[in-house]
Amino acid sequence: MPVYLTPNAIAAINSGDANSKPLVQVLEIKLIGNSQDRYRLLLSDSVSTQHAMLATQLNDRVKSGRVQKGSIVQLIDYICSTVQNRKIIVVLNMETIIPDCEIIGNPKLLMQSDSTSQKSSSANKPEQPAIPDNRHLATTSCSNSAPKPGNKMPSFRPTVQPPYRPPPNYKNHGPIAKNDAPARIIPISALNPYQGRWAIKARVTAKGDLRRYNNAKGDGKVFSFDLLDSDGGEIRVTCFNAVVDRFYDAIEVGKVYLISKGNLKPAQKNFNHLKNEWEIFLESSSTVELCPDEDGSIPKQQFSFKPINEIESSENNSIIDVIGIVESVNPSVPILRKNGMETQRRILNLKDGSNRSVELTLWGELCNKQGRELQQMVESGVFPVLAVKAAKVNNFSGKSIGTISATQLFINPDCPEAYGLRDWFDRGGKNTASQSISRDIMPGCPRNEVRKTVSQIKDEGLGRADKPDWVTVKATVSFIKTDNFCYTACPLMIGDRQCSKKVTRSGNARWQCDRCTQEFEECDYRYLLQAQVQDHTGLTWVTAFQESGEEILGCSAKELYLLKYEEQDDVRFGEVIRRSLFSEYLFRLKIKEEMYGEEQRVKITVVKAEKLNYSAESRFLLDLISRITC
Amino acid sequence: MDTSNPAVLVNGELLRMYVGRKVRTVIQVLQSNGGITTGKSTDEHQLVIKGSPPPFPLTNFVEVIGVADSNQSICAERWTNFGNTFDTFSYNQLCQLANGEYKSLFL
User: Fold this and answer.
1) Best mutation site among A625, A627, A628, A630 for testing chain B: the one with the most B CBs within 10 Å?
2) Which UniProt keywords apply (chain A) (predicted)?
3) Contacts of A126 (CB under 8 A, 6+ apart)
4) CA separation (Å) from A314 to A114, A321, A437?
5) Which of A180, A227, A310, B42 would give a disulfide with B92, using CB separation of 3.0 to 4.6 Å?
6) Which residues of B touch A625 (CB under 8 A)?
């Protein structure tokens, strides 16, 4: 069937037109991107061509063959963006007019630079007015489409062809007025970095804590929240520094907001588990408006629950939703995190109709609020339904799940899955034994602990990989280096943590911290202890900082500093050191190879030192022996 | 170390296998008067320890080395205080290992 393509459509789009709904032909389809499928099309108006990206919600059209090489399509929603100095059309919606057609005209790749595109478009249609008006120009534009001589002349013009107005030549007419009309609301799934103006209407399903960080650029703060819209699209929004102050208090979980003018960046998949390849970064120009009159078309929360028996085969670190009956809740215990901060941990057991149960580890604040509530319910004989949004699967012992910062807990939620589960439990599920997919905790040994001997550190080349190795070693302190056992530290608080950076004496005998850029009369003293530890296999140097240093020496670095340098009591100093030798400890070690000048050296840091608990250690060894037997 | 007359690690249950032999065990002291001390073994059997206790006061847990007199009594030769807290579970497991699969490792 002969057909006309919209003349000069490519030039018009390149100049900013987004309303003419042109008819174009697809010359090429290419799959690009690696994280998620994305199609790039080469579109032709029979004279010029231009690359276009297909919004992912249109991927189906390509996959199902409704859009293929040669298809004549009408662009319905589209914009033109400049990406890395190249113009690209982003197609948000389109219709296939003719699924398969021979190549029309003799299209050439349009020149990329702005001026040439302007030139070529005006050269092609000199008789067209440069100033936009609303006249129907169907006839003129039709005659404009005269292809190069010798080309097959299309002889049919489809009725769907919209009127086309040539683009105004903005460059020659001074600054143009900004389009201040509110951006159209689009589905979250249609968001992409190639469109400038957009708005989304979505419900906040989760709000992260305000986090502070310190890196090479200085101190900063960040927070994120997750959005869900009425089409089920979800995306994370992140704010930094000054933008945090603007929006942190305004954002409330459960409320619906209109959000526009943000930056789209690829989602950080290691922190962001949402089903979206993009993440929104809000800027100072972004707007976030509360929608007070929302109608409930956006669900409060979107779950995709996984039965517990399927968690068994889930990949490590995958993020899942799960719902189950809480069978038991352990008390909350303090745990030292890898960064030296203390946090809370609470383990509970969930079971469901798949006749499996799983251990859920709550971390941090969740242990207190909901953890305590769950414990009280279970202790009083009520077994609540717990829906867990975004928990992480881990392999530590069998398969278990743990909370992450984005995790949300819903006790006895109002959803059909919860009622189904309750019904199952009350009708007999309560009395059925379910098999745990999480192995029982080894006695006297925290889960995920890797026990090594001193010689294994070297023999197995620990610390040589990209990430540090974390191991536990049972060893005896055999030597402590007594000079430079501590350093002068900044006593100021940054948020809820002490700065602790090394401070130096400034000219006026006061102490000065470069990070805090402040001076003070007295500094703090913190351990930087070099010690040798040994077990039955060998000996190694380790470095212990503040808390582990105190555990080993039994007094603070300041006390010991004053004893040695102020009181100069070498006898008592020697006693303190000797008293600390030849005690057995469980050392939690961080092992990492680092560069010291030209030399690679494996650095072993004591993250935690614990006096050996012989009873717990005996049980640990008995457990090991029983494993040898079987 | 004198290995000529080793003492077998036992709990209450294992004691019966070594009547007339030298044994060692840990008990929780229940009562002690004169030459008779009664105690609880790590596997919850009641044992009688004959012989005069040492001149120092006994702690809650005591190790006794002596000759097995009967199924449930030992003539004590040596007493050692093991303190007021003791992991009876681990000790009991040890006794079982020392008389089971890993017997060859023990004297």
Assistant:
1) A625
2) DNA damage, DNA recombination, DNA repair, DNA replication, DNA-binding, Metal-binding, Nucleus, Zinc, Zinc-finger
3) none
4) 51, 12, 12
5) B42
6) 97, 102
Task: Point out the residue among B90, B101, B102 whose CB comes nearest to the CB of A618.
Answer: B90
Task: Give me the total of CB pairs closer than 8 Å, taking one residue from chain A and one from chain B.
Answer: 16
Number of domains in chain A: 4
| CB–CB contact B90 A625 (8 Å) | no
Residues A456, A590 within the same domain: yes
Give residue limits of the domains in chain B. 8-88
Tokens standing for residue A350 = 């969930």
Q: Are residues A351 and A323 in the same domain?
A: yes
Are the CB atoms for A489 and A523 separated by under 8 Å? yes
pLDDT at A129: 44
Positions of chain B with pLDDT lower than 70, given as ranges: 1-2, 107
Query: How many CA atoms within 13 Å lie on the side-chain side of A309?
Result: 7
Does residue A198 lie within any of the structural domains? yes
- Does residue A390 fall inside a structural domain? yes
Which chain B residues are within 8 Å of A622, Cβ to Cβ? Answer: 90, 93-94, 97
**Residue-wise pLDDT tens digits, A540-584:** 999 999 899 999 999 999 999 999 998 999 999 999 999 999 999
Smallest CA–CA distance, residue B69 to chain A, in Å, is 30
Q: Which residues make beta-bridge pairs with A529?
A: A544
**pLDDT value for A439:** 59
Query: Of 3.20.20.390, 3.30.450.40, 3.90.76.10, 2.40.50.140, which CATH number belongs to B8-88?
Result: 2.40.50.140
Pairwise CB contact (< 8 Å): A629 & B101: yes
Which one of A87-96, A110-119, A522-531 scores highest in mean pLDDT? A522-531
Whether residue B97 and residue A625 make contact (CB cut-off 8 A), yes or no, is yes
**Nearest chain A residue to B91, by CA:** A618
Does the residue A166 lie in any domain? no
Same domain, A318 and A426: yes
Clarify whether residues A13 and A117 are in a common domain.
yes
pLDDT score recorded for residue A128:
44
The interface predicted TM-score of the complex, written ipTM, equals 0.89
Instruction: Find, among A444, A427, A425, A445, the residue nearest to A357 by Cα.
Output: A425
- A431: in domain: yes
Q: Which of A286, A269, A287 is nearest to A278 (CA)?
A: A269
The answer on A427 and A326 residing in a single domain is yes
Residue A443 distance to chain B (closest CA, Å) = 11
Inter-chain contact A619–B101, Cβ cutoff 8 Å? no
CATH number of the domain to which A355 belongs: 2.40.50.140
Rounded to an integer, the average pLDDT of A264-276 is 83
Alpha helices in B62-102 (DSSP H): 88-98
C-alpha–C-alpha distance, residues A96 and A511, integer Å: 73
pLDDT on residue A397 = 60
